[in-house]
Amino acid sequence: MTDVNRPPEDRIGGWTRLVTARPRLSLLLALIFTALAVVAGSGVADRMGSGGWEDPAAESAYATKALEKRFPASQPNLILLVDSGGKTVDDPAVAAEARALAKKLSHEEAVTGVTSYWTTGASSLRARDRGEAIIAARILGDESAAGKALERMAPHYRGAHGPVEVRVGGMVAVRHELQSTIQEDLLRAEMIALPITLVLLVMVFGSAVAALLPLGVGIIAILGTDAVLRGLTEFTDVSVFAQNLTTALGLGLAIDYALFIVRRFREELGRGAEKLPAVATTLRTAGRTVLFSALTVAASLAAMLVFPQYFLRSFAYAGIAVVLIAATAALVVLPAALILLGDRVNALDLTRLLRRGRPVRGGEPGAGWARLARLVMRRAPMFALATVAGLVALGLPFLRVEFGTADDRQLPKSAESHVVQQHIREGFPGGPGGAVEVLAEGGGTGTKALADYSAKISALPKVLRVDSPAGRFADGRRVAEPGPAEAARLAGGSAEITVQPKGEAVDAASQNLVRTIRAQEPSFTTSVTGTAAVLVDTKDSIADRLPWAAAIIVAVTLLLVFLLTGSVLIPIQAVLLNALSLTAMFGAVVWVFQDGHLSGPLSFTTSGDIETTLPVLMFCVAFGLSMDYGVFLLSRIKEEYDRTGDHQAAVEFGLRRTGGLITAAALILAVVMVGIGTSRVTNTKMLGLGIALAVLMDAMVVRGLLVPAVMKLTGRATWWAPGPLRRLHTRFGLSEGESAPAARQGGSGTEAAADIGTGAATDAAAGGGADGRRCGGKGGPHGEDGTHGEDGVQGEGEEARDRVSTGR
């Protein structure tokens, strides 16, 4: 049959011809791409960093680099915790062995600034009970080089040395353990998530062959993104944490997109369509919606590019890449596979064994969702108020959020670097890492000026002492004259001043101390760094750029949803309801991870705060995923409203047709995120479990209750737009079905120029839906609510009964 003789809904567009012309070649090219991606992406984790929370343009970043260059002993990133084995650290044998270790360490390549309790006598390097003391040093180089140097040196220092026992810690050890732990956890998460996901896909599709297709798309997306990230490491820093997002979104979105496309194709076959027209209709309907959804998710993730922290930027790199590769594979590779499979896509029906001997269930597919929609809309004010109140209540704990920095407590309690830092926190009077460091530069850095400045700083509340080239100061006066150690704090017209605060390194008092020190106006230029200063700068950086990121997300969402619906009100509703769906996630993050509830069952150590960049990351990811599901629901409602002009019936119809499928997709994505949440690293655990909760709340509560309630309350005004915007949507808007006038007049509509593009697609006669389902037509092998049923897709008679029941 030629294209001219085909009905409009079965005509073959240019995109379909392109991707199905040589399907075997397409699959071969996909296989070659995957193989090349494996090679190109190999070793990507070893080239990634485990930091990236700081703003590289901040004052603290400048001071850190300058101090590292001029006073390396002031910025130790390697700590050897020496246990005296039941004696004291002043025991002659213990002291002799410790000095020997310090001397050996000073001769290591790339190690500088070695200092210890036994060479300085500094009380901050000795435990209060005198049972432990510290040897501190700095390993030079970037994160990768420092990590490799540590890996080479650590075995020679760790363990027993005569009368002492040595543990290796410090920030370089923390980051090295974070990197190796994340790699191990990611492999375990994949081993957990993949088989469970495959079982769920078989349950949703019924067919093992169909269930394998989404996994294939996911594997292409994950491996392709690894190759992209490997390439980016040649030009910029990339966080190792981004690999977790690659796995989660690669599987989750690939499954979402393939779920809708494969389901639609099977339904087209069920109505008797040939393979090529079935693919054409699938790409014209579900394919267009997949493309639109991918753009909304990518836009949400792209907002993280406005932040200077490479931790956040890395998630944007990984997220955008994995979304676009997953969508491309779904729109290029899947059609080729479906053309070759044809009816065999339904092969290996494993659910037949479960149904053997059981009576066939009656009732319409999706009838439960239809009943829920009618119930919600009958009592729309009550459901809207109760749902909003419940979501707001779940989010209230976030009002007491405390922001902090990632440290060793991200690791399991048994991790060596965590043990070292915990001993320092609990047993030392103020060890390395907790001090506020001040770099003094320029004219006026004479001894008297430094003494006056140090005395003034030491008199501030919450200051334990100040160490400077002019001596040691406490309570506004000098308590120790300068010696050799103090003289080392002067170099080339610059001076290093260490302010030891009372209490925790990053508590509110320490942050206020940083601001107070920066407000001083000595006769020389000062730059302040240290853990508390980095946190202050990070919070300021996030706060400065957060409005821009939010503006990007809101603007792109409003534009894309308007292009989909042609409404002014629906895009605003989408933004507000999506944001509201995230309240439970943010409330749970504070209640669980900051307050420490469930820390035992979930096996993590609470630090009493939330890492500053995590809420931004979780918002961008969860918001994008919420829009993913919102697009499928709204496009189906919009198509039905255009076809019938009945607002309430369209809302009910959309929920009935998409409720089960969206829930199935959300459950599968939640399984993947929970797999990520089994990580032993707290931030990764928080990311996985938090987004899993957000996805489930959005799919089951917001889409099932709040959206129909709000759309009932807004009524036909939901679809209003001023004349100029209506004309804009008519020209550039995205649509799944015919326009309402054409449908009511019985016209055939205007054929789309291509399978995937702008304009109105003419599949109303075929009943094509935005979610890949058919309004009418012949029955098929599978139900439309995401479950496998004996009667299959709702047939013509069922569709007629539905029109009576909804008043159409």
Automatic annotation (TrEMBL):
<feature type="domain" description="Membrane transport protein MMPL">
    <location>
        <begin position="55"/>
        <end position="380"/>
    </location>
</feature>
<feature type="region of interest" description="Disordered">
    <location>
        <begin position="737"/>
        <end position="808"/>
    </location>
</feature>
<protein>
    <submittedName>
        <fullName>Transporter</fullName>
    </submittedName>
</protein>
<feature type="transmembrane region" description="Helical">
    <location>
        <begin position="192"/>
        <end position="221"/>
    </location>
</feature>
<feature type="transmembrane region" description="Helical">
    <location>
        <begin position="661"/>
        <end position="681"/>
    </location>
</feature>
<feature type="compositionally biased region" description="Low complexity">
    <location>
        <begin position="750"/>
        <end position="765"/>
    </location>
</feature>
<feature type="domain" description="Membrane transport protein MMPL">
    <location>
        <begin position="411"/>
        <end position="723"/>
    </location>
</feature>
<feature type="transmembrane region" description="Helical">
    <location>
        <begin position="25"/>
        <end position="45"/>
    </location>
</feature>
<feature type="compositionally biased region" description="Basic and acidic residues">
    <location>
        <begin position="798"/>
        <end position="808"/>
    </location>
</feature>
<dbReference type="InterPro" id="IPR004869">
    <property type="entry name" value="MMPL_dom"/>
</dbReference>
<keyword id="KW-0812">Transmembrane</keyword>
<feature type="transmembrane region" description="Helical">
    <location>
        <begin position="380"/>
        <end position="399"/>
    </location>
</feature>
<comment type="similarity">
    <text>Belongs to the resistance-nodulation-cell division (RND) (TC 2.A.6) family. MmpL subfamily.</text>
</comment>
<keyword id="KW-1003">Cell membrane</keyword>
<keyword id="KW-0472">Membrane</keyword>
<dbReference type="InterPro" id="IPR050545">
    <property type="entry name" value="Mycobact_MmpL"/>
</dbReference>
<feature type="transmembrane region" description="Helical">
    <location>
        <begin position="687"/>
        <end position="706"/>
    </location>
</feature>
<keyword id="KW-1133">Transmembrane helix</keyword>
<feature type="compositionally biased region" description="Basic and acidic residues">
    <location>
        <begin position="781"/>
        <end position="791"/>
    </location>
</feature>
<feature type="transmembrane region" description="Helical">
    <location>
        <begin position="317"/>
        <end position="342"/>
    </location>
</feature>
<feature type="transmembrane region" description="Helical">
    <location>
        <begin position="614"/>
        <end position="634"/>
    </location>
</feature>
<dbReference type="Pfam" id="PF03176">
    <property type="entry name" value="MMPL"/>
</dbReference>
<feature type="transmembrane region" description="Helical">
    <location>
        <begin position="241"/>
        <end position="262"/>
    </location>
</feature>
<feature type="transmembrane region" description="Helical">
    <location>
        <begin position="290"/>
        <end position="311"/>
    </location>
</feature>
<dbReference type="GO" id="GO:0005886">
    <property type="term" value="C:plasma membrane"/>
</dbReference>
<feature type="transmembrane region" description="Helical">
    <location>
        <begin position="548"/>
        <end position="570"/>
    </location>
</feature>
<feature type="transmembrane region" description="Helical">
    <location>
        <begin position="575"/>
        <end position="594"/>
    </location>
</feature>
